[in-house]
């Protein structure tokens, strides 16, 4: 296969690589990229040895705090974060699942108070056999990673 | 920060024993107007006559004045007021709030916006911790101890919140359990894992009387029609899970039958006269236990 970039390189900023192809739009939601003023390129359904099909996001002139970027570990735990300065990768970050998640995720229990009243959701995270489970601070029910619904930052 | 009782996990073993000790004192002398200068709000967003009367009796026996409502229909809630605003308002007036609400997690949320202690009197199918504490009080009172009890839990073990809270609370006191339930209503896996992690032995069966002979406590729960996908299965189970007096032969003399009430047909009326029947006394114990919970949270005893 010819070796050239399908998504053009950036000079300064952050590249989020190895996002499972079907999780791209959730990552966009979690990071609130739909309101960003930065130049952003998205690629999706790109070939990946690791994932089959992957997505990639390149955000120019933007750098994330760990606690912000770690939130995507919920849906794309194998994503790689590359920090770019002057076209060079100067830092590779590995995601870690944060112990608590505030906001972002909707509780899957339809009678949970957070789905009916203006209450921000709050979960503690548990990892079991590679699966992430979120325990709701309010209704005490678990939401598994397969059922994670992102609350859009619109 | 006021202390609340929202979930049974909020209380340590010592807290629970403290409540049971105070409940025993209140039982000896049920009229102790130690809170004659207090106002207790009893706010019930959905009706629950039994729980509300029990809490309000407890408040009155402690000398407190009670304000509140018994359903949300004629309140500002029906005008669209949020839980937060209702609690902010009520916590300006009262020294303690007893709250029942159909949404799960509503009591936890209320405790986060309230200036005064909140007692959860039931948040949907989630938690009802005062029921659990009165169950513990009833077990201790009838058996003389909470330790090493053999408890046969019967009925709806899948959805019954009293069952889940009871086994979590009893896990401090090295019990052994028999779980008796029809296939559709068996105990969820997460609770079995909870017990295994703590080394608490249990058996599972679907035969109603299988766990009777060596039980110290038979804890009956209501099997509700709406839990079944197949109405014919419900009819079958309803008839099978009906306890009558003849089934009690050969049980331990000190064995007691508990039930959170209301019962429908899972305990037939001929059991009421048996020495084993304890469900009505259990309800009376609820008043003493709730007096103790109020006293603990208001910190006066």
Task: List its salient traits.
heterodimer, A: 154 residues, mainly beta, Alpha-Beta Plaits, SH3 type barrels, 2 domains, 5-stranded antiparallel beta sheet, 4-stranded antiparallel beta sheet, 2 helices, 11 strands, 7% helix, B: 301 residues, alpha/beta, Rossmann fold, 5-stranded parallel beta sheet, 4-stranded parallel beta sheet, 9 helices
Provide a concise account of the structure shown.
Chain A is mainly beta and 154 residues long. Chain A has helices at residues 24-30, 66-69, and strands spanning 13-20, 40-48, 52-60, 80-85, 88-94, 100-102, 105-106, 122-128, 131-136, 142-144, 149-150.
CATH architecture of the largest domain in chain A: 2-Layer Sandwich
Total count of helical runs of at least 4 residues of chain B: 9
Q: Would you identify the CATH architecture of the largest domain in chain B?
A: 3-Layer(aba) Sandwich
Overall strand count of chain A:
11
Shape of chain B: globular
Folded structure, characterized:
The complex is a heterodimer of chains A (154) and B (301). The longest helix of chain A has 7 residues. The model of chain A has no long low-confidence stretch (mean pLDDT 89). Chain A is elongated. Chain A starts with 12 loop residues before the first strand and ends with a strand. With 154 residues, chain A is mainly beta. Chain A contains two helices and eleven strands. Chain A has two domains: 82 residues, Aspartate carbamoyltransferase regulatory subunit, N-terminal domain (Alpha-Beta Plaits, 2-Layer Sandwich); 51 residues, Aspartate carbamoyltransferase regulatory subunit, C-terminal domain (SH3 type barrels, Roll). Chain B is α/β, with parallel strands linked by helices and 301 residues long. Chain B has two domains: 97 residues, Aspartate/ornithine carbamoyltransferase (Rossmann fold); 154 residues, Aspartate/ornithine carbamoyltransferase (Rossmann fold), CATH 3.40.50. Chain B contains nine helices and nine strands. In chain B, the strands form two sheets. In chain B, strands 7-6-5-8-9 form a five-stranded parallel β-sheet, covered by helices on one side. Chain B has a four-stranded parallel β-sheet with strand order 2-1-3-4, with helices on both faces. In chain B, helix 2 links the parallel strand 1 and strand 2. In chain B, helix 1 crosses helix 5. The radius of gyration of chain B is 19 Å and the shape is globular. At the A-B interface, loops of A face helix 4 of B.
């Amino acid at each position: 296969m010819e070796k050239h970039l399908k998504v053009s390189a950036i000079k300064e900023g952050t590249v989020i690589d190895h996002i499972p192809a079907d999780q791209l739009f959730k990552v966009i939601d979690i990071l609130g990229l739909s309101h960003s003023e930065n130049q952003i390129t998205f690629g999706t359904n790109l070939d990946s040895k690791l994932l089959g099909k992957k997505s990639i996001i390149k955000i120019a002139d933007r750098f994330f705090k760990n606690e912000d970027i770690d939130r995507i570990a919920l849906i794309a735990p194998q994503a790689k974060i590359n920090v770019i300065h002057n076209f060079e990768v100067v830092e590779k970050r590995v995601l870690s699942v944060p112990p608590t998640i505030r906001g972002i995720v909707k509780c899957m229990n339809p009678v949970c108070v957070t789905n009916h009243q203006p209450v921000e959701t709050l979960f503690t995270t548990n990892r079991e056999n590679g699966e992430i489970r979120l325990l709701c601070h309010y209704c005490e029910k678990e939401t598994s990673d397969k059922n994670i619904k992102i609350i859009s930052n619109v | 920060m006021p202390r609340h009782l929202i979930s049974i996990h909020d209380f340590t073993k010592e807290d629970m024993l403290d409540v049971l000790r105070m409940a025993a004192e209140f039982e000896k002398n049920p009229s102790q107007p130690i809170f004659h200068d207090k106002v207790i709000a009893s706010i019930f967003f959905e009706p629950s006559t039994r729980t509300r009367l029990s809490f309000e009796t407890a408040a009155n026996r402690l000398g407190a004045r009670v304000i509140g409502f018994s359903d949300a229909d004629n309140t500002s809630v029906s005008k669209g007021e949020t839980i937060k605003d209702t609690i902010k308002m009520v916590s300006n007036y009262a020294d303690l709030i007893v709250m029942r609400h159909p949404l799960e997690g509503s009591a936890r949320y209320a405790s986060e916006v309230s200036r005064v202690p909140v007692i959860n009197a039931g948040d949907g199918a989630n938690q009802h911790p005062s029921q659990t504490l009165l169950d513990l009080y009833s077990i201790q009172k009838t058996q003389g101890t909470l330790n090493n009890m053999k408890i046969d839990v019967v009925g709806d073990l899948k959805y019954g919140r009293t069952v889940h809270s009871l086994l979590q609370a009893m896990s401090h006191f090295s019990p052994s359990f028999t779980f008796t339930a029809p296939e559709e209503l068996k105990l969820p896996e997460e609770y079995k894992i909870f017990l295994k992690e703590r080394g608490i032995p249990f058996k599972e069966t679907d035969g109603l009387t299988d766990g009777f002979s060596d039980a110290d406590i038979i804890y009956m729960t209501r099997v509700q029609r709406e839990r079944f996908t197949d109405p014919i299965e419900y009819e079958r189970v309803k008839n099978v899970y009906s306890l009558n007096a003849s089934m009690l032969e050969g049980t331990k003399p000190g064995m007691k039958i508990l039930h959170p009430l209301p019962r429908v047909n899972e305990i037939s009326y001929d059991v009421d006269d048996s020495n084993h029947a304890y469900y009505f006394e259990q309800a009376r114990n609820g008043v003493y236990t709730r007096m103790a919970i109020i006293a603990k949270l208001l910190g006066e005893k």
